[in-house]
Design goal:
- It is a single chain.
- 66% of the residues lie in helices and 0% in strands.
- It is an all-alpha fold and 86 residues long.
Length: 86
């Protein structure tokens, strides 16, 4: 009475995976590098309209932006390398 149905294969096509890595991964890494190099500009990107004068990011704020960008860059690169090695 009960017949087992085959499980469909939902694994992505290799081209699709590489496409998403290139389209989303490379700009994300570039954004993280930009946040490390210029944390004040990356924080204020799209937020300058909220301030009347020229806004300033504190040294502590720049430190945290830079630190978290470095941590995210390390995690992202380890993930990319792990995926490529597989």
């Amino acid at each position: 009475m009960y017949r087992e149905q085959p499980v469909p294969d939902f694994s992505p096509h290799p081209f699709a995976v590489w496409f998403f890595i290139i389209v989303f991964g490379i700009p994300f890494v570039a954004l993280l590098v930009w946040s490390i190099i210029k944390p004040d500009q990356s924080y204020l990107f799209g937020r300058r309209w909220m301030f009347n004068g020229e806004p300033k990011v504190s040294e502590l704020g720049a430190f945290w932006i830079r630190l978290l960008s470095i941590i995210m860059l390390i995690i992202t690169l380890i993930s990319f390398i792990d995926w490529i090695v597989r």
